[in-house]
Amino acid sequence: MKKLMALGLALTMVIAVMAGCGQKDKEVLTMGTNAGFPPFEYKEGTEIVGIDVEIAKEIAKEMGKELEISDMEFASVVTSVQSGKVDLGIAGMTIKPDRLEQVDFSDTYYKASQLVIVKKDSTITAADLNGKKIGVQDGTTGDDYASETYGSSNVSKYPTGMDAVMALTSDKIDAVIIDSYTAKALAKKNADIKVLDEELTSEEYAIAVQKGNTELLETVNKVLKRLKEDGSIDKFTDQFVKE
Ligand code: GLN
After folding, report:
1. Paired residues of 136 in beta bridges
2. Beta strands 134-137 and 175-179: pairing type?
3. Which of 59, 132, 142, 197 could form a disulfide with 177 if both were Cys (CB 3.0 to 4.6 A apart)?
């Protein structure tokens, strides 16, 4: 009987500790992202840094919560926000109709376009990509553009832009189509590639929240407005877009 009571007590304690953890969880704000997208989110050693991370920290601070970053494939970010697995999708994410059916978007905070990366010594121009092998990051607007324009059989999908660039430099593909800031960031780190001037699309980035979560959306918009007005967004850009 004593043993049983001791067990009961132990169980109660475990439950209490677990409840305590649950309480603590409430104070965490989770950001779903793909940390292979410089200058917005990328790894420096084991740490995830970038413009989006700074923005997310400001949102967490505003809410009095601790920021937790959940690094995942880009293609999973929208569904993770939709299912509530993460609170925010902050991933240099372009607003587009099919995503608007799954999540709500904040006000926009960046303008971008799709650019073409080729090998430094290549003579390929943006006009002659027809029939070429094109690499993209899976599930991105670059993927959409390339698949629609050149046919999906000509398109190879990679988990990150860096993987696509690796395939390019090892001659598996002829070109990479990816977001402008990331194209330039990747080219800065790799002397074997160059970015062509032609802008293939015109896009705007925003933050995704679960559909109907107007309270969180309003907080996000409030913070974005402040960061735009007080020059913080420009400061983050200077900090992470290294010329
Ligand atoms: N802006 C692109 C998109 O939304 C790419 C984003 C990314 O790869 N992180 O699809």
Report:
1. 157
2. parallel
3. 142
Q: pTM score, two decimals? A: 0.88
Atom of ligand 1 minimally distant from the CA of 178: 5
- Report the nearest-CA residue for atom 5 of ligand 1: 140
Each residue's pLDDT tens digit, 172-195: 999 999 999 999 999 999 999 999
Write the DSSP string, 180-204. HHHHHHHHHT-TTEEE-S-----EE
Residue-wise pLDDT for 16-39, tens only, equals 444 444 445 459 999 999 999 999
Distance 45 CA to ligand 1 centre (A): 22
In whole angstroms, give the CA distance from residue 183 to residue 155.
Answer: 17
Alpha-carbon distance 109 to 222, whole Å?
Answer: 12
Q: Is 37 in the pocket of ligand 1 (CB under 6 A)?
A: yes
Rounded to whole angstroms, how far apart are CA atoms 143 and 101?
Answer: 19
Query: Which atom, in ligand 1's list, is nearest to the CA of 96?
Result: 4
Answer with the residue of higher pLDDT: 211 or 22.
211
User: Partners of 199 in the beta sheet?
Assistant: none
